[in-house]
Design brief:
With 171 residues, the chain is an alpha+beta fold. 20% of the residues lie in helices and 37% in strands.
Amino acid sequence: MSREDVAKEIARARRLSKMVICNRKCLEDAGCYDRGYVVDANERFVLLHLVTDDIRLEGYVVLRLDDITEVKSDFDNYRFIEKALQLRKMTPERPALVDLKSMETILASVDEHFALMVVHREAVDQSECHIGSLESIADKTFVMKEIDRGAQWCGVKRFRVDEVTRIEFNG
């Protein structure tokens, strides 16, 4: 899909409250995708309310629009998933006060309103993600206070803002 087609499909899904699958073939392994409802988007970013494999709405992800290579709004089990969510009385919601203006405002607003975030820099290292909270942010870099697998604070690391490919939170 062209970037223009991706943007049109994202806008359509947002307008119609449709669930989508977003593929980012340039950054993810084959078979990896994000499934959810487009709850906000602009010319640079898309915010999805994620649908889990056990068919629940849980957590959010912000993706760079330029990284999305394909958007599907008609896929296997679409109607089943929609019906299951309806029976569970689960409806997609936009998280309050997440600012999609820039990667810096996304990082700052997610940090302000949610306890932890997961930051991915897949173009640098697909196998690594960073879990924690924002310590500080400047024009081109940010410092993140990280937690380890045992949920203990383990130090701080500095990253370049332009290396961030996705941010997950509230999941």
